[in-house]
Amino acid sequence: MDENKDKKAEELEEELTPQEEQREQEQEQEQEQESASAEENEEEGKQDAADAPAEEEERDPLEVAKEKIAELNDKYIRKVAEFDNYRKRTLKEKTELILNGGEKTITKILPIIDDMERAIANGEKTDDVATLREGMDLIYKKFLKILEGEGVELIATVGEDFNTDYHEAIAMVPGMGDDKKGKVIDCVQTGYTLNGKVIRYAKVAVGQ
Q1: Can you give the pLDDT at residue 47?
Q2: Which of 8, 31, 147, 202 makes an SS bond possible with 152, Cβ 3.0 to 4.6 Å?
């Protein structure tokens, strides 16, 4: 019985051996193909790397420099043109601002002129001084309100400490007492500021 078993085992080994050899041959062929493909890719990469510098070396350095100069010159001309257009535009806007900068304010003042014309016309038709005075007072207050809207303010004077930043002394009044010394006693001409800047000093009389 043992001898029969050994014979069968030997027969199985003999049957498996050719299959294993075939598999080994197939694996060896696959490895050879992979190795050949890798070498081919490596050669192509080297060839591409070698061709790239060759193509760059083929270009004339002088031509490359000329192209660069032409490109920079074109950019320079465009920038100069843009700046010239900007300069002309700002100059035009500045000129218009100088010529027509007061248009908004003048437009607001025109109704005051209309009121004055009507007051003059009505003054010729009546002798009522109180009515004329009231009309003039209303026009005056309306005008001050328009000026305030444009940033114009009256400089405070009477009773205020004399301040050379806002006041111009045109007279010194002696004998006014210690409480009036250095104080504005009277305003001869009203002063004004525009957005905080003095545009006309107030002419005043100061106690001494």
Answers
A1: 62
A2: 147
